[in-house]
Amino acid sequence: MLFDTHAHLNAEQFNEDLEEVISRAQEAGVTNMVVVGFDRPTITRAMELAEGYEFIYACVGWHPVDAIDMTDEDLLWIEELAAHPKVVAIGEMGLDYHWDKSPKDIQKEVFRKQIQLAKKVKLPIVIHNREATQDIVEILKEEGAAEVGGIMHCFSGSAETAKECVNMNFYISLGGPVTFKNAKKPKEVAAEIPIDKLLIETDCPYLAPHPFRGKRNEPSYVKLVAEQIAEIKGLTYEEVAEATTQNAKKCFAIN
Ligand SMILES: [Zn+2]
C-alpha cells in the first residue's frame, strides 16, 4: 500500500488519459491519493474526482502565487467545502517568493486567513514553501498552526528546519527530488527525520522522480520515492510503504 499525499490529477495534463493513470497507480500499489486544488477551477475538479473515486480525497485552498486573486467569497467557498466528508485538509497555502505575481504582504495575509480558517473547521493544513522558509515558520508559530498541524509539502529545506516543523505538529512530505542524485538536503531530511513523521507524494504532474525527471509525473511513481527513502533509512520498501500510509491516514483522519 502507498499513499500519494499530494497529486494534481485535476491538472489539464491528465485530461487525455486519467483512467490509465489511475489504473497504473493501482497496479503500483497506490491505495489512496489526495488531489490538491488551489484556485477555482482546480478546486472544482478536485471535488469532482473525490466524489467520483472512493480512494481519492480532496485538499482545498488558495495558492500563494495567486494570493492577489483570492476574494472573500473564495474563502467562504473553501470554508463551505471543508464540511464535505471527502475534504481532508486545507491548502495548498503558504508563501512563494520565487514568483512576484502576488506581493509578499498579500501572500502573508492570505496565508494567515487560511490558517485561521483551518483552525475554525479543524482540518490540517498543507504548506507550499518556495524560498520563504523563515517567514513560513514565523507565521505558523504566530498563528498557532500547531493546533491543527499538517504537512510540509515537497519539503526542500534543511533537516534542522524539518525538525522545527515536526515540533510544530507537522509531517514532512518528500517527493521526486529525494531521488535526484544531487539532492543533498532531501536525502538528509529522509535520513534524519523519523519514519513516523514522513509522508510521500508525487506533486504530479510536476517533479517526476529519477529516472523520469523532466517528464510528466504520475501517482504510480510515488513507489520510487518510497524505495529511495527505504534505501536511505536502511528499512525495507514494505516498512516505508506501511509507515507512510499509516502516517497519512492519521494526518488526514482517514480510517
Ligand atoms: Zn502542489
Description:
Helix content is 42%, strand content 18%. It has 255 residues and is of the alpha/beta class. The chain has an eight-stranded parallel sheet, with helices on both faces. The structure holds zinc ion (ZN).
Mean pLDDT: 97
How many β-strands, per DSSP? 8
In terms of per-residue confidence, which ranges show pLDDT below 50 for 5 or more consecutive residues? none
How far is the first residue's CA from the last residue's CA?
14 Å
Determine the strand fraction and express it as a percent band: 15-25%
What pattern of helices and strands is seen along the backbone?
A: EHEHEHEHEHEHEHEHH
Q: Which molecules other than protein and nucleic acid are bound?
A: zinc ion
Radius of gyration, taken over Cα atoms and rounded to an integer in Å? 17 Å
Secondary structure class reads alpha/beta
Our count of helices gives 9
Largest sheet: 8 strands, parallel
Tell me roughly what share of residues is in helical segments. 40-55%
Brief characterization of the structure:
This protein is of the alpha/beta class and about 260 residues long. The protein has helices spanning about 20-25, 40-50, 70-80, 105-120, 135-140, 160-165, 185-190, 220-235, 235-250, and strands at about 1-5, 30-35, 55-60, 85-95, 125-130, 150, 170-175, 200. Helices cover about 40% and strands about 20% of the residues.
